[in-house]
Amino acid sequence: MQNSARINAKITSVGHYVPDFVIDNKFFEGILDTSDEWITERTGIKERRWLTADKPTSFMAEKAIKQVLENRGIGPEDIDMIIVGTVTPDMIYPSTACLLQEKIGAKNIWGFDILAACSGFIFALINGVQFIQSGNFKKVLVVGADKMSAILNIQDRNSAILFGDAAGAVLLEPEEDKNEGILDWIMNIDGSGAKNLFQLGGGSLHPASHQTVDDRMHFVYQEGRTVFKDAVKGMADVSYDILEENNLKGKDVAWLVPHQANHRIITATAERMGLSMDKVMVNINKYGNTTAGTIPTCISEYWQAGKVNKGDYLVLSSFGAGYTWGSVLLKWSY
Ligand code: UT7
Predict the structure, then answer these.
(1) Considering only CA atoms, which residue is closest to atom 25 of ligand 1?
(2) CATH second-level architecture of 182-331?
(3) CATH code linked to domain 8-179
(4) pTM value?
(5) Which of the residues 38, 84, 125, 229 could staple to 143 if both were Cys, CB 3.0 to 4.6 A apart?
(6) Residue nearest to atom 11 of ligand 1 (CA)
(7) What is the enclosing helix (H) or strand (E) of 65?
């Protein structure tokens, strides 16, 4: 949807946090019928980070937010709103946004969580953009954070090896120049994909019980091969379409920032866009799939390394449970 509002939104700061505790592929060789070689070849993952059991998702999100505030030179009192994309909130309710408001000491603000799995960050981002464009909100924090280690079935080699924990955050602020900041987006949902990637237990359909625990219903379940095929098509299509709609070619793009689910999905998306891999942000090798954390973590790391520059076109793309998928086109502003 091309932006017709009077005010644009732009990212003015970034931050991220990954836990210290590294789990390499060898760890899984000791507990599952798998190998470092299989995991590396089929996914691109070499290691991931897991947060300690006593700490929740908001612990990582708070650290990412603090970096955002520090980088922008502002305090929590300047924030108007917090939007959090996560599938691993600290608890079912209250929202992680509420818990973060209290943790960081922000006052008189609004906020909420968004449940869009691996697309959680870009869905939250585009929500934040709407509030900036309304003219009523000047500084919106957008967070993508997940502690996937909390919902992993460690006995399932199909999924246990894939996921890690991380949080990333950005600050959105108004921009008067229509050619700067978030320029365009395409967002989709399709519930026919729900059967391929889910966490069944704990909701109103299957409330927590001894049975749901015995049946391992509180963990991630994924039909990997089906999701793989759908993700390649969904993410590549939407990333190509957003270029087409804006009369851009792969050569115009400084960075593709893809959701980090599988290196082969990332490569297929880059190929479809006509991009070489040196224009693609990748950290799946270090962190695995951190769900809503992948995209903001990538942007923050690359920005900290001095690789993202004012005027760069970035395309952010994701595909995840729901299905949820989409792409964002933006021009980096600082
Ligand atoms: O982030 C949200 C969206 N999620 C995604 O986009 C993930 C999409 N899916 C994937 O990334 C891939 O499908 C996986 C990495 C999950 C699996 O890779 P694959 O190449 O699609 O493997 P597969 O599921 O087709 O399985 C091939 C074989 C099977 O054995 P058989 O039936 O051929 O004997 C699996 O049992 O590989 C086996 N396998 C493993 N072998 C060693 C599955 N997991 C493992 C493992 N180690 N960890």
Answers:
(1) 225
(2) 3-Layer(aba) Sandwich (3.40)
(3) 3.40.47.10
(4) 0.96
(5) 84
(6) 262
(7) helix 57-72
